[in-house]
Prior knowledge:
Elements: H1 14-17, H2 26-39, E1 43-50, E2 56-62, H3 70-74, E3 80-85, H4 93-106, E4 119-123, H5 128-131, H6 169-181, E5 185-192, E6 201-204, H7 213-232, E7 237-239, E8 241-242, E9 253-255, H8 263-269, E10 274-280, H9 285-305, H10 307-322, E11 329-336, E12 341-350, E13 353-354, E14 361-362, E15 365-378, E16 381-388
Parallel strand pairs: 3-4, 3-5, 5-10, 6-7, 9-15
Antiparallel strand pairs: 1-2, 2-4, 6-10, 8-9, 11-16, 12-15, 13-14
Amino acid sequence: MIAIDAPQADWRLTYEKTSFLETGRYAEASAYVRRLDEASPVARAFSIGASPEGRSIDILLISEEKRFTAAERARSRRPLILIINGIHSGEIEGKDASLIFARRLLVEKRYTDLLDKVDIAILPIYNPDGHERFSAYNRINQNGPKEMGWRTNSLNLNLNRDFTKADSSETRALLKFMSDYRPDFFFDNHTTDGGDWQYHAAYSVPMGPTQDPSVAAWSKRMVDSVVKACGDDGHPIIPYFGGFNAANPAAGISASDFTPRYSTGFGAAINRPTMLIETHVLKPYKIRVETTFSMVLNTIQFCANDAAGLIAANQAADRRAGQSMADKSVVVEAGASRNGRPINFLAYAYTPYESEVSGDTIPKWDHSKPLSIPSTLRDTMEPRSRVRAAYAYVIPAAW
């Protein structure tokens, strides 16, 4: 298992100073990326926009070639990896994991071979207003940190439902950054609600018919590598699933495909490989941070080792997207195939109980009784909806 040991005291985050029980406030993350900028000539911290309450949305861009502007990045032959954290700011382990990762690269000089092959952009807190709605009661079923932020932004908009309508200033800022800098791969880090299994996290990587085949094939190779590497680190992971009976995992599990209003669905729509990370809400905060760190590190290592393949897959998708689609059949929605593959689902004994407060049945899992349950995983996507592409579109003047 990857363990995140403490650095010299003056570089520790609140997460490390509190024995992994708390997370820092917005000011800590904002100051930290600027401090990393000052500490390293290959890092640049800058704002991509502001939240409705006026907080800066900060990014840390790491480039060994010092290509920090969009024009400079456009001349680079290295892929850009973007890490998005805190889109739902109560689900915040990605922030701590990413800042530790940046510190290890820039201050502790670890994994420096990565910077010979890729550039990395870290967005510590995408939803700063939600982050600062800080409380111990925002996610009362979540196993740490002691206090955390809120799901929506200060206008009560869910930023992970906003990628196609772009109602929020945060979304518009991120989409402009993505349009200008054109990341080749991006993460979106979350904490899922739901049950308690032996798995430390779930992932969703688009590999279905809504995405260009070259990108889907590259993503499949990446997933196979990362699942094994994270397991070797002591962090078992599984595809993000729904349609699941917690009392009967043997009945089968279905993975999900996300539409473009979500971050990873948007990534599929623009033919860029993405990874949604969903650590499990009932796992201790320390395990969730370390799992996120492992998934990010192992994925970036794969991107670095196959940088040419990543760029080639994206360029092939862009060439095909530039060809006329008129009157061609286009898959606009996909879902899990009816045919699954056998797996041994790593569960705990399910021992629900009746609440003394509400009288409702409360789910509970017995960690003293780990189980390996034969089941079926349906994670191959097949078309659900197709449309014929139009020859042209008529757009009203007001739009």
